[in-house]
Amino acid sequence: MKILMINDYFPPEIGSASHLFYELAKEFVKQGDEVSVITGFPRYNIQKQTLPEKYKGKLLLNEKIEGINVFRIKTLSLPRQILILRGLNHFLSAFAYFLRGLAGIQYDYILVYSPPLPLGLTAYFLKVLKGKKVIFNVQDLFPQEAIDMGMMTNKLMTGFFYALERFVYNKSDLVTVHSDGNKKYIEKVIQDGDKVRVIHNWVNTEELSPGIKNNEFSSLYKIDSKFVVSFAGILGHLQDFEVILQAAKNLEKYNDIEFIIVGDGVAKGSIEENIRKKNIRNVRLIPMQPKDKYPQVLHSSDVGLVTLVKDLKTPVIPSKILSIMSSAKPVLATMLLSGDAPKIIKESKGGFFYDAGDAKGLTEGILFFYNNKDKIAEYGLRGRKYILRNFSLEISCKNYRELFEEMS
Fold first, then answer.
1. Distance CA 395, CA 387 (A)
2. What is the mean pLDDT of the chain?
3. pLDDT given at position 159
4. Which bin fits 337, alpha (ψ -120 to 50), beta or left (φ > 0)?
5. CA gap 408, 125 in Å, rounded
6. Of 39, 55, 81, 296, whose CB count within 10 A is highest?
7. DSSP 392
8. Count of C-beta atoms within a 10 Å radius of residue 246
């Protein structure tokens, strides 16, 4: 198969948005498919001092990464904190990727990662001009998430993006989502249940596998002898760091419990400020780690945290849950109990979940594993087995290839 994947993020950028499609693309190549990716130059979640020279000062670049044909085009990097500028950036990037898709790339199917939502326009116009089939993969329900979070309140703007959402979903040949809750939401938007399919997000279970606690990362940050509670990933508006800091404050008397928050993002400044204001001494902020170091972060941990704010009402399944479980570590989560993620934790028996903002529950969950360290491996292995059965990369790749064949 000749597959074109369109994503605004791609390695060497760090984060689930870049690595999810990267892992899938590698698996397509492994299955014998010809894979091309249209994306921008690295600009998010990457340290400038580590950026390879080949990405600097160019408008276009074609490269091959592990058998994947990567076609890059220069896009703007407007401030992400300003919603209007961020939205403008998404439309400009979508137009740039459309132009890139016209330039001699051979493909039969188009697979798009959303957000950003305007990439659906990229795929639509390529579909019209090239006559190819489109699968639109929805990871986050925009604009609903932004509305729920109070980040988008202008009625004219919300109406515009609701209309764009309907247009993109309707014009795609198939829409894939990672949970049943997301499927129900999109079915209400387009009123065509057969077009919406559930393909769970995936984990590279070979790269994210059990490992030893004492490793290069734990030695570097001197946490070998600590009971480590970790949050690793993007520090954004959807993640609830207040509940983590409150749980840390509750556990200050335990000298051997240390919280580490590993990552970067728009919320980093407020986290640092809250740590100073509340004089929290058992929380350490650690910079975003390269992809090859991320497994060591999880191996160094005794439990992994996934926390979402209570205003987030869409049924998301954070990829961190799958990564933590794949590494055979217990997961502790705080989020709305009506979503799909708590169901995964419950079915796997790989950890505990609490209502959004429940610092008391989170504190009790941490103390359970602290006082019963023999349970860490038990819960971790249950989570690992659950991931292998339901969320392996091979299973998801097989499911996508079957969808491509169905559209042929």
1. 11
2. 91
3. 93
4. alpha
5. 19
6. 39
7. B
8. 20
